[in-house]
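User: I'm writing a tutorial on reading structure tokens. Could you give me a worked example: one chain, its sequence, then its tokens, then a sentence or two explaining what the tokens reveal?
Assistant: Sure. Here is the example chain.
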Amino acid sequence: MEKFRKALSMVPPKVVLAYSGGLDTSIAIPWLKEKKGFDVVSVTVDVGQPVDLARVRAKAEASGAVAAYVADARREFAEEFIAPALRANALYEGVYPLSTALARPLIGRHLVAVARREGATHVAHGCTGKGNDQVRFELATTSLAPELGVIAPTREWKMTREEEIVYAQQHGIPVEATRASPYSTDENLWGRSVECGILEDPAVEPPEEAYGWTTSPQAAPDVPVYLRLNFEEGLPIALDGAPLPLHELIHHLNRLAGAHGVGRIDHLESRVVGIKSREVYECPAATVLLRAHQALEALVLPRDLLDFKRTVEQRYAQLVYDGLWFAPLRTALDAFVNATQERVSGEVTVKLFKGSATVTGRRSPSALYQHALATYSSGDQFRQEMSEGFIYIWGLPARTWTAIGARAESTSPRTVPDRG
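And here are its predicted structure tokens:
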């Protein structure tokens, strides 16, 4: 028994690593083993990035992982994370569709599940101490499993990107990043983010080599394409009349809209950690779907609901960006947003042309737009004579305010300045 206890005490603890196969997470496997004494279990979650799961698993094992989990979570990502954000028109700072931010809580949920299955004491990620994703991963895991410790190798090893490449080469780990092309990218169904290299100078236009999903608008087709999107309760269900699961519809839209140069975003962003950052995104499907969804809402929702929902949308986007997906407030906001979507069903036509996605038509059985009320031609049923009384009542507070102010000014005693 004593020998058993001694042998058990010599078994290394396990850490579950969020593994992408990129530079940071690739070298994290040998680093965690050498510097921290952990057995590393890798977890790779397919959220729509171009990844060969079998190849990634083999690379993780070859790099020293004692176990390598892979999961195809594209449908899960679309239905449980992208769908609520789309219904909420979630755009951080009114610009960024939160592609990377939405994937992190999903990956965190998978990390926790594997950690409990493997009996791990810690989880790890490849995020730096300057970025947002460290916050998102750690808030996700601590919200779901507060007992797990967290290790962030890139916050400790203090290697430059160039030194990381050398470290990988020394350990026989192939990486795509090179000194000549030092971009850091992240891709999923909802978008692609690019940073590092020349992009760190916000005064310089992003070079074409930084883009991977979108054609330059100048080189895009000279003939526009029109898309028909069918929505049901705030979610797209068909593209050009063909019903598709949400994750497949997004995939098709990324290719189609990207070919027309749609979805490029160059954003000077306010990070959670307090610094400003220049971020370049490619979000073709997100750009099209958000604009179509907003246009349909404008057709079917009354003004006061639209106004209040915009306030909720801003707060919703902030929560997601800040890593608070599993916070009670996000759940409560979802309940409100879902209630607003009951009539957001119909068809929207979008024109793709030279980098633009323009809504050109919308229809819905729940449309509040009524031709008989809006038209200036024959058939007009709007009772224009009633507007005089409406304006009188609507303007009563303003007239009263002005009248009382004028009366008070006329009755107040005038004081003569003391000339000394």
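What the tokens reveal: The chain is about 45% helix and 20% strand. The domain at 188-372 is CATH 3.90.1260.10 (Argininosuccinate synthetase, chain A, domain 2).
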